[in-house]
Write a structure and sequence with these properties.
Length: about 500
Amino acid sequence: MTIAEPTDAPTALVPARPARPAADRREVWKLLAVLLLLTAALRLPAFFVDVFNSDETYLATQAQVIRHGGNLYEQAADRKPPLVPYVYAASFELFGTTGLWSVRVVAMFAVALTALLLALEARRRYGRRAAWCAGILFVVSMVAFAPQDGQAANFEVFMLPATVAAIVLARRGKGLGAGAAVAVATLAKQTGVATLVPVFYLLSRKSDRRQVADAAVGFTVPIAVVALLVGPGQLLFWTVLGNGSYVGVKTASTYVVSKFALMTLTWAACNIPILFKLPRAWRDRRLLSRDGRSDADLWLWVISGAVMVAIGLRFFGHYYMQIVPPLCLLTAGTLARGTRRAATTVVAFAATCGLAFSAAGYFMRPFDPEPNYATVSKYLAANTKPNDPILVWGSVPEIYWASNRRPATRYATTNTFLADVNPGRPGTDADPKDVDPVVWQYFYEDLAKHPPRFVIDTSPARIRGAQYAPIGEFPKLQKLMDEHYRYVRSIDKIAIYERK
């Protein structure tokens, strides 16, 4: 691929040439076509791997509840905003399947759209060469990590188009639209709210300071509308108030520090193409872009995003995706100020690395392997009716998804919600006393409304820390099991109990 060379100097960017609408439109369509093809090529494992991580099947379970008329948070709760479960539900409805490849196709379009927005912003700031660099580097960086993070249809994939759109709009003085875009990002994942920092900075630099107020209105109104639709109390509890034990800093430990160092260094090594030019970008931070402004907003974007990566002190690989867009723009700016040969070399190296990461997606499982859920799921599908609810004790939402049976309670996993066994933490750190009593209240209310036909206990199989929270540790639940359920059999060490 040839990267077009702009008319620029080694240390500064010359003003943009007069616009040529027809040529610009052709350039945009060409960019979009290349970015779509590259995204599809690098994310082809989406069609060959059933599950990349449990977040996908958790979201798929929520989507199934929604499709069958259930209310989010009341029949399918998570500590996340509501947008992405509805994206999953819409994808399943559109493609007529619950196969995760369907929502991954939608994720491909989200990645390509984000890349296009970055390319257009890079062209406005630095020129045509930067547009190609920013778009391609972004598509590659989105797969440049373990497949469980880089290939899955995670929350961040659907959050990033809106975060980039917010910066694009704010840079152009569109306060209302920028605020609304941040709201959409926040409704995909709470950490999207950090984009308000660079947005407010950009708008405050404009001569008309009223745009800051417009951005605040644009952000507040969509959040308020969604709160009214799903229930203000439910939205506040599940996205903010109910996250205390998850984001608390009391779990800081040597384990956390070690994980931070390991994950950050590993992610950085996988993303050298968008990081190695940062020292040069920092030295050039006072240079003006083609639109006559500096890149201070990009550095604020990186810093605010990095703070969000650290929230909760868990450092999962897909968390780092939030800082990829500003890093791609900063790197594209330095490449635009350099030589054409240097830019081509960097993009070619990044694309080669991207192909290697993509190939790993077909077979590589460097972290926790997927549990053996298929056999027990087939058993449940064969021995229950479609409307029979089931309860999976532990953290294996794959069983709900693969058996196509709905949860008896709003919790697709019980480890985190009921036992304080959190992902990214040693199971020995679990302290059930930290669980909000209202969470258990909801659990027993749900069981009373929808008694499960089967209870599937994954703690004997020691899957994802379930062994640290066996049913016997909770006397009220154990009593309910003794009175109403009988042991049937064990499949792959997973115990199955049927209602008497």
